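Working notes for the structural subgroup meeting. M.R. asked for a predicted model of this chain before we commit to crystallization trials. I am recording the input and output together here so anyone reviewing the notebook later can reproduce the run.

Input as submitted:
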Amino acid sequence: MDVEHRLAALGNTANMSNDDLKALYDRLKQAARATNQFTSDLLTANEQLITAGLEWRKALDITPIIGEVATASQAAVGDLARTGYSIYTSMLVPLEKMRTAFERLIVAGQSGQFELKDMAREFDKLGVSMGVLKFTGLENVSRLGAALQIARRGAGDASEAANNLQNFLAKLAAPDVQKNFAKFGIDLPRLLKRARDE
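Returned structure, recorded in token form:
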């Protein structure tokens, strides 16, 4: 009954027909069996993606990937849904490259102390900051994963490391910081553009 109620609400939000809802639920059940996740958890991921503005068919396409990653990393499905949305909308990684983006974050997590389950809790804010700085695309997903590993070395825990990196990225885009750099003859926007180009 809970699932039916949530599907009806989702149908209203996404303007879906009854046939669309049935197709969505069937695919969620298939994905749940294939990834060893609960159907209700994968529905939660879809609710988050669709409510955030992703078209329901696109949300459904990345749901099995989110399920696989959740099973492999023990990360929360909801956190991974927000991460996937940030990768797609802020870091401009196409949906067909979503699996590769998550694989890169898993590798980064295995290479240091900042695991994917921790990244998933923080990634949506960091992804927005990277997007603002125009550090987008698959390579910059890898770079963000690596930057989190470096930030973790000087922090007490993963949350502090993410907060430190978030503050750093925000400062790079702040007009007053750019003016302060300019006082020393450093054109920070041009420097960042060169870094992106190179």
